């Protein structure tokens, strides 16, 4: 019996294990190997150079700026996404007219094409002919923001556009967690005289904290991997103002053919994400309630 169960278990996990080894573990190990040699398509060479590619990163101002831009992007994107999606889920969890339709329509930005979204937002946020700045001029704002065209506003603008696009998925996950909160706890808190905000702070937030932790982890990882929207909206510009590390890795590999240097940047990014995830995992004991 145990032998047959073991064989069945192995049979179930074998497809996943094969996919993990082929598409995840092997590329990771190969990328680490590539980062230790001097290889590009113009001069095929696998001469071992050790950690020279990693050392080079810390002397490359563009690469360091790209890491810093990714970090700033994460600081804007993740808190805004978590807070807005939570409160939107709280609103959608209440009974109101056309609630099913509203829950369906909120998924539209998430399933829309990234390039289409970028094109629409580029027109909306056009600093000269866009409707947003036209409205700001109408209400008396003399110097409206340049949005995607400003060195200080491009990265925050991209982060907010991505918050708008990703808001639906996070909201649906929060909504599922909210529906699992026992109504008896709300009734008990009302008997104790708790208002709406106290019920949210003392009942809702602690009980959905495992879901919040999951969404924070996945959002941080996803924010460091953001590439498509940056490429479509600004292509890292103006200058290098919105050049995040994922875009920089792509440019180093497929534009300048410096595959070893790009692999070193990718491995370092993996290390940064790993360290941040470990810190978050250890810090969850202070605020996550299971």
Rounded to an integer in angstroms, the radius of gyration calculated over CA atoms is 23 Å
Mean of the pLDDT scores?
90
pLDDT < 50 runs, ≥5 residues = none
Strand order of the largest sheet: 1-2
| Amino- and carboxy-terminal Cα gap | 35 Å
CATH architecture of the largest domain: Orthogonal Bundle
| Separate helix tally | 14
Please identify the oligomeric state. Answer: single chain
Q: What does this molecule look like?
A:
The protein is mainly α. It folds into two domains: 1-32; 60-286, MetI-like (MetI-like fold), CATH 1.10.3720. Helix content is 71%, strand content 1%. It has 14 helices and two strands. The longest helix has 34 residues, at 2-35. The protein is globular, with a radius of gyration of 23 Å.
Q: Would you summarize the structure shown here?
A:
With 290 residues, the chain is an all-alpha fold. Helices cover 71% and strands 1% of the residues. It has two domains: 1-32; 60-286, MetI-like fold (Orthogonal Bundle).
Pick out its properties.
290 residues; mainly alpha; MetI-like fold; two-stranded antiparallel sheet; 2 strands
Secondary-structure blueprint of this entry?
Layout: H1 2-35, E1 37-38, E2 47-48, H2 52-57, H3 61-92, H4 99-105, H5 108-111, H6 114-124, H7 131-138, H8 154-178, H9 183-191, H10 196-207, H11 209-224, H12 228-233, H13 245-254, H14 259-283
Antiparallel strand pairs: 1-2
Helix pairs in contact: 1-14, 3-8, 3-11, 3-13, 11-14, 13-14
């Amino acid at each position: 019996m145990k032998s047959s169960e073991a064989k069945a278990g192995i049979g179930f996990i074998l497809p996943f294990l094969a996919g993990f080894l082929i598409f995840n573990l092997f590329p990771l190990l190969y990328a680490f190997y590539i980062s230790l040699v001097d290889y590009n398509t113009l001069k095929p060479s696998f001469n071992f150079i050790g950690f020279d590619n990693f050392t080079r990163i810390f002397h490359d101002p563009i690469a360091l700026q790209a890491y810093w831009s990714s970090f700033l992007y994460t600081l804007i994107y993740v808190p805004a996404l978590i807070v807005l999606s939570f409160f939107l889920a709280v609103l959608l969890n209440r009974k109101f007219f056309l609630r099913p339709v509203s829950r369906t329509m909120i998924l539209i930005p998430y399933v829309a094409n990234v390039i289409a979204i970028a094109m629409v937002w580029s027109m909306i946020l056009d600093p000269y002919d866009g409707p947003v700045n036209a409205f700001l001029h109408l209400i008396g704002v003399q110097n409206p923001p340049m949005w995607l065209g400003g060195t200080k506003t491009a990265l925050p603008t991209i982060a907010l556009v991505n918050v708008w696009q990703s808001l639906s998925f996070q909201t649906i996950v929060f909504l599922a967690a909210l529906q699992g909160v026992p109504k008896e706890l709300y009734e008990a808190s009302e008997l104790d005289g708790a208002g709406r905000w106290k019920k949210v702070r003392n009942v809702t937030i602690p009980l959905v904290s495992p879901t919040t932790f999951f969404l924070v982890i996945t959002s941080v990882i996803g924010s460091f991997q953001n590439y498509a929207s940056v490429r479509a909206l600004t292509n890292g510009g103006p200058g290098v103002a919105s050049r995040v590390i994922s875009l920089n890795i792509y440019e180093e590999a497929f534009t300048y053919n410096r595959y070893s240097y790009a692999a070193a940047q990718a491995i370092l990014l993996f290390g940064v994400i790993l360290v941040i995830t470990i810190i978050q995992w250890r810090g969850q004991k202070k605020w996550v309630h299971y």
